[in-house]
Amino acid sequence: VLTVVVLLSLGRHPASGRARRSSLDARALALALTLPDASVVGVHAGEPDEPALRDYLGQGLGALRALKVPAGHDPVPPLAAELLALRPDLVFAGATAEAGEGSGLVPYLLADALGAELVPSAVNLTVRHGTCEVVQALAGGRRRLVPEVPLPLVATVPAAAPAPAGTVAFARARRGVIHAVACENEPDRRPGPTARRPARRRPAAGGGTRAARAAGGSALDRLRAATETAGEGGGRLLVGPAPEAAAEAILDHLAAIGVADLGSSTAAADGAPEKQEG
Amino acid sequence: VTRPRRDPRAERSALLVANAPRPRLDRKAPASSQPVPAARTRRDLRAERDARRREAPSGRFRYEWARSTPAAATSPTPDRLNRLSRNEPERVFLAAPEFWVLVVRDTPSGPPSSADRGLIGAARRLAGARGGVAVLGTGGGAADLFGDAGADRLLPCDPAEFATPARAMAAVKRAADALHPRHVLFGDDPVAGGDLARRWAVRQRLPVATAVVELKEAAIARRAEGGTAEHAMAPAAILALRPEAGVAFAGPPHEATLLELDPGEPGPAASSVPVPLPLDPDAVPLGEAEFVVAAGNGVADFAAFHELARALGAVKAGSRVVCDAGHLPRDRQVGASGTVLRARCYLALGIAGAPQHLQGIPEVEHVVAVNTDLHAAMVKRAGLAVVADARAVMPALIQAARSRRRTRPC
């Protein structure tokens, strides 16, 4: 039987600011609950009486250990002590927290304290003969497999992981138990931010996309950016070509902009970068 | 100019008799007959211009306005002498900067990508005039491209070392031991730079700032609170920069020289090397897809459409009409009531481009449209528009894509 610990933090709704279960931690919990032959323990550092914590229980978690860590105190030492006592084979956590600093550093600090391997962006995981195969999510929907990761393992779960299926079961959420655990706390002495302001959309480096370029403009500019090809030298237009000519033109265009590079029709060994066929 | 220039400041300072508690001037004192010597040296613009005059091989004169470095900081490397003899603009060479800013690229091979340029430019801004920028990973003979981006040193590194994070850590450690950098800059990709930044911070017990979206010489801003707020702070020792924090360097080019490191202890043996998995276009969430082929009301043969998507390796999508009719599942719908794409390329087959549909592709850079209507909004939006029947173009496209794949050199 695998011992699996899921680190569950308190989330914050991005629009209303209300406390909720963190969406990434909920994904981590859903991933942990799919593992066969595993006993899953939820661990939370914070306020044990928070009603939003029960949403995790409603997802199918039996019991949750809530370490009493007051606000403004460092959650890492109590969590590390708790994990050293539980000796888990697998630790899951959302990639970043939804409230507070959200640096995504806690799993790394805990992996360091446990002497465990860490695999970021895990969307699927198989345990076989004491080692793990982890599927990692990359940008653009691509995936890669990390083979033979030794246990214990800390895995962080990204937004690309499947969302928890179904809704939060009300009866389960009421039935589940939250164990409040007293622990030694020390204040967080790291310097906080010097200023805080609401996030704003920033243009990507190098001018960004057409929408980002028009973001500061008038309504007409934004409409034009959404509906017209402006500033790209206008579009190329082929009126009523033969289907074969149209197909060649489209494939040449796709190759020129660097997507779906299928090679050229003239079959010249042009030394184009090799691309995995999918 | 023949008559002596008056220097009012010097005249005033000559009349000054007391400075505290306030400046007092004695204007009744006899004015000295000698002209007051100028208190500050005046720039002789003509002489400065003449000093920059060069004779080009063609016999014409031209003026070299590129900023030159102080003589103490330059060293006549063979490269530099070659460059001077070729009459190329002089590059800024930092012999011994006060401190270093180390840039760790996500993949330490090849010429600098636009993300790398942003990262190096950000490092240049952090280094100011007195610091140096070192980049981990050579560019395969593209040192000048790194110099243009603002780098001063290139630290050679085997790309195979970045196959696993543990080996990459060994490479970063070697570079950090040699330079003792004040700041180390990474990208913020959670499986590449962001991962390495956090590992390095935990290993060195140094403060780290991740998800940095803005970087200035003395302050940074980072995304926090689930992406809803920005926190301002002083630059931490380790920074993981999102692409929007990158600033392309626009100043005079620097001279990027190779800095050989002693090999040190080799990194751990490569274990658990990640293997890329084949992309399953049907499993990719529409919002993440890079290349999307979409069907609209002009497509009738959906078997051919699925075949085309397979042949191109593209993610399938549809307009509202198509999803309403049940030809594609609802999570494949593009537009205001469906998904907003962040794809690089969008191939629209038989889609006229209703405003509600176009709202789903504002971020798409390249649009290719196939439509019978010359005046369709999608044709206006497209970089390549083919005014033809999508039902006829699709089979030709499948055949052309297949034959290209077959003849492709492998």
Question: What would your notes on this structure say?
Answer:
The complex is a heterodimer of chains A (278) and B (410). Helix content of chain A is 25%, strand content 27%. Chain A has 8 helices and 14 strands. A 7-stranded parallel β-sheet of chain A has the order 7-11-6-1-4-5-12, sandwiched between helices. In chain A, strands 8-9-10 form a 3-stranded antiparallel β-sheet, with no helix packed on it. Chain A has a two-stranded antiparallel sheet with strand order 2-3. In chain A, strand 4, helix 2 and strand 5 (63-68) form a beta-alpha-beta unit. In chain A, helix 3 crosses helix 4 (106-114). In chain A, 37% of the residues are buried. Chain B is elongated, with a radius of gyration of 31 Å. The termini of chain B are far apart. The chains are: A alpha/beta (278), B alpha/beta (410). At the A-B interface, helix 4, strand 9, strand 10, strand 13 and helix 6 of A face helix 4, helix 7, strand 9, strand 11 and strand 14 of B.
